[in-house]
Write a structure and sequence with these properties.
This protein is α/β, with parallel strands linked by helices. The protein folds into four domains: 2-105 and 150-155, Nucleotidyltransferase, domain 5 (2-Layer Sandwich), CATH 3.30.420; 162-418, no CATH class; 446-554, no CATH class; 560-631 and 639-723, no CATH class. Helices cover 51% and strands 7% of the residues. It has helices at residues 2-10, 60-73, 89-98, 114-129, 140-144, 160-171, 179-201, 203-213, 227-242, 244-253, 261-284, 295-312, 317-330, 338-346, 358-375, 382-393, 404-410, 412-418, 449-452, 458-462, 466-473, 477-491, 504-517, 521-528, 532-554, 560-574, 606-612, 614-621, 669-694, 706-723; strands spanning 15-24, 27-37, 44-54, 80-85, 155-158, 579-582, 644-646, 657-658. The strands form two sheets. A five-stranded mixed sheet has the order 3-2-1-4-5. Strands 6-7-8 form a three-stranded parallel sheet. A hairpin with a 2-residue loop joins strand 1 and strand 2. It starts with a helix and ends in a 31-residue tail after the last helix.
């Protein structure tokens, strides 16, 4: 077999090789493959040259020596055009030291090690010091010593698929420098990985996934490219096919924190953002039809798609920016490589439709002219190549290893541009597609928004009156600017040539006005001279941004020390020891959505709502980091008692959850306990009252979806805490619910006034 391979390659003038080094079962191996075009048929031929064990460390000189030995063994050391490897530092250094260099495949000056530069400086200083004292030494023996520099390796090419994988993993991680994206990304993927890990370790969890979702999950694998994208798409498929209720049921059944609506929206946008990168990877990994000419069109179109995604991105704009920066950094040389440009022009699928840069096309055509002049001296004529390519155009098939849908979706824009005038006319032309279009881009009433809208007139006048500003927005000017500082970068949009975007301050004004009044979207749209749908999108996005950007600061999860401080404050305020807080529920009334799940929402009791919530689950499982038990004041003989939350009769009785004694006409200690408990629970009643009086949407019937209502409620809770928070994490306006002396709240049981 080896003799046949050598004979087959002896008739070929140019060969491309690939190599990789890996370890398995405490042994290391080096694999080398060769690829060339048959001179008579122009069909691609591929063979495996070697798979040899490498002993010792995988240093650059060891790899360079092994590669040179394999190339020489098959007699192809002078025929190899390029050798493709991954981006391992040992391979990069081997080709930098021993490989053939040119202007597009050279070793950068920056790659020279600091050690060599330092040595040079030392030699220079020493030379100046010894000037005039030169000793002549015979260097023949030194020059004849073998340092391995006789190795000769061909030009090096970095694997484009591996580069794309690094862009989608290493470079994409730079997006976490944005705090808002970092919080949302880590919160979302921590819950997803908890689900993936549990389903991979427990068969019962996998069976529950099959029962609830009718399909199994995909677990990410660091060694499988696109595995994270596929895993996210599988979760989104479950949401699409079975609904968010199935996903909530799954997380609750596995006793895991559930994904919120914002986090599900983040996953959807994450899939839209990384989807083009995944499709590009699938296309470039094709085995047969994909060739060098596919690289630049794929990269160019990928960059264009990311630019369009960035314009409409809500959560993943930092991710898009990081991926774009990674593409420009890692593929900078390839994007202007003349050979790659010429190869793309020669592919009938692309020709010159993949770029509008005339300089690139000119550079590629110049390379083709040089290639034509070289081919005139060879046995293969350009006429034969052209005829062969035209013949192949009729039966081009999708690249093996990538799906037909991926290729069609990815290159759809090329087909539209290149197919005008080249596509064949079908016998039965398809019926025209009627697309609904806007009657107007901006309504005539809203065109005067810069002069007559409420934001530019009333809101600016309110800034001159602090009291009226707070009545209108429920926040004073300093608090308004503070909230804007938190969420401004998240809700900001890009201006375009068609129109100017609505500023973050205007978006916050619209959202606060909705929360403070509960007015319909149409009323607010007329006041601020924007579209009805625009108001709906602004309210949802701003509410989600308030929760996302401020929850860690103004509604943090308490630790053991925080719980102890809360218990001490509660004892002083409500005269109830070992109490960590009061629990209660409030109904938010919304219009019936198009699809109603009977038995949920309004029919859920306070106790049922607590059980299905993340807080209730953590309380039941003991994951709240509650302080240790301690004796009650004056009752050391009873021993240590647990710290508790208190609620009304709707909640169950548990070790860390107290409720009143049932029935009426209680006497003695039970009646006294109920009185003290009811008095302590007044704090949560007062808090709900203040919340409802401040944000009037609680007194309206909201015409929004349950998801938007949930976002609005969470936003008002964050703003409620923010308005009462000082710079040191303390509430400077506490809810005072202790009654005055002599009132019914402090009168002993049995002596209350009638």
């Amino acid at each position: 077999m080896k003799r046949n391979i050598i004979e087959a390659m002896s008739t070929v003038s140019v060969i491309a090789t690939t190599t990789d080094c890996w370890s398995t079962r405490r042994r290391s191996f080096l694999g080398v493959t060769a690829h060339w075009l048959d001179p008579s048929t122009l069909e691609r031929c591929s063979v495996a040259l070697a798979c040899r064990q490498i002993k010792g460390p995988h240093t650059f000189d060891v790899l360079g020596s092994a590669l040179h030995e394999i190339h020489s063994e098959f007699g192809i050391q002078n025929k190899i055009g390029r050798t493709t490897t991954d981006n391992g530092s040992n391979f990069l250094k081997a080709f930098r030291m021993y490989g053939e260099q040119d202007e597009n495949n050279n070793a950068n000056a920056n790659d020279v090690s600091d050690e060599s530069e330092d040595n040079g400086e030392e030699m220079g200083d020493e030379g100046q010091h010894l000037e005039g004292e030169v000793d002549f030494v015979d260097a023949t023996a030194i020059l004849n010593e073998d340092y391995g520099l006789q190795f000769h390796l061909p030009k090096h090419h970095r694997c484009a698929c591996h580069l794309l994988n690094l862009v989608s993993t290493v470079d994409a991680e730079k997006a976490t420098s944005n705090d808002a994206y970092k919080r949302l990304s880590r919160s979302t993927f921590s819950k997803c990985y908890a689900l993936w890990n549990k389903c991979g370790r427990a068969t019962t969890a996998a069976e529950m996934v099959e029962d609830v979702c009718k399909i199994q999950l995909i677990r990410p694998n660091a060694t499988r490219w696109n595995s994270l994208l596929l895993a996210v798409e599988r979760i989104l498929r479950i949401v699409k096919d079975e609904g968010e209720a199935a996903l909530r049921t799954l997380f609750t059944g596995l006793k895991l924190p559930r994904l919120s609506s914002v986090e599900i929206s983040f996953l959807e946008e994450y899939a839209r953002t990384t989807g083009p990168v995944g499709k590009a990877l699938n296309i470039l990994q094709g085995k047969n039809d994909v060739q060098m000419g596919w690289l630049l069109p794929t990269l160019t179109l990928l960059i264009t798609k990311l630019e369009k995604i960035c314009i409409t991105s809500r959560y993943c704009k930092p991710l898009v920016d990081a991926v774009q920066e990674g593409l420009q950094h890692r593929f900078a040389d390839m994007l202007v490589e003349p050979e790659f440009i010429a190869a793309a022009i020669l592919v009938p699928k692309f020709k010159t439709s993949w770029t509008s840069d005339e300089d690139l096309i000119l550079r590629g055509k110049s390379t083709l002219i040089i290639l034509f002049l070289c081919q005139k001296r060879s046995n293969v004529s350009m006429d034969y190549i052209k005829a062969h390519l035209e013949e192949e155009t009729a039966h081009l098939s999708p690249a093996n290893g990538s799906s037909e849908s991926d290729e069609e979706d990815f290159f759809a824009s090329f087909k539209k541009s290149a197919g005008q005038g080249e596509a064949e006319v079908a016998d039965d032309p398809p019926a025209p597609v009627v697309v609904a279009q806007r009657r107007v881009w901006v309504h005539s009433i809203n065109r005067g928004r810069g002069q007559y809208r409420e934001y530019h007139r009333l809101c600016q006048e309110l800034r001159l009156d602090e009291d009226r500003f707070k009545v209108y927005f429920r926040l004073n000017r300093q608090q308004f600017e503070g909230v804007l500082t938190f969420i401004g970068p998240t809700i900001a949009k890009m201006n375009t040539n068609y129109r100017e975007s609505i500023s973050p301050a205007q978006r916050l004004c619209i959202c606060l006005r909705y929360l403070s009044t509960g007015d319909s979207y149409r009323s607010i749209a007329f006041s601020y001279r924007v579209g009805f749908c625009t108001v709906a999108r602004i309210v949802r996005s701003v509410c989600e941004a308030i929760w996302l950007c401020m929850v860690s600061t103004y509604m943090p999860v308490p630790g053991a020390e925080d719980w102890m401080k809360i218990a001490g404050d509660y004892e002083k305020l409500a005269d109830f020891p070992n109490c960590l807080g009061a629990i209660d529920g409030r109904h938010v009334v919304i219009q019936s959505p198009p699809v109603v799940d009977v038995g949920a929402y309004g029919r859920s009791s306070d106790g049922g709502t607590l059980s299905s919530s993340a807080f209730g689950t953590a309380l039941r499982l003991g994951n709240l980091d509650l302080p240790p038990d301690r004796p009650l004041p004056g009752a050391d003989h009873l021993g240590p008692q647990p710290h508790v939350f208190i609620g009304d009769e709707a909640f169950p009785l548990r070790r860390n959850l107290l409720r009143p004694y049932p029935a009426q006409n209680l006497g003695g200690e039970r009646r006294s306990f109920n009185f003290r408990l009811s008095h302590a629970r007044r704090i949560v009643k007062c808090a709900f009252g203040i919340l409802a009086n401040q944000w009037r949407l609680y007194r309206r019937v909201l015409g929004v979806s349950p998801e938007v209502a949930e976002s609005a409620v969470k936003a008002t809770c964050i703003l409620h805490n923010y308005m009462r928070w000082d710079g040191e994490g303390e509430c400077h306006h506490r809810v005072q619910c202790r009654a005055s002396p002599g009132s019914a709240a402090t009168t002993p049981p049995g002596k209350r006034s009638q």
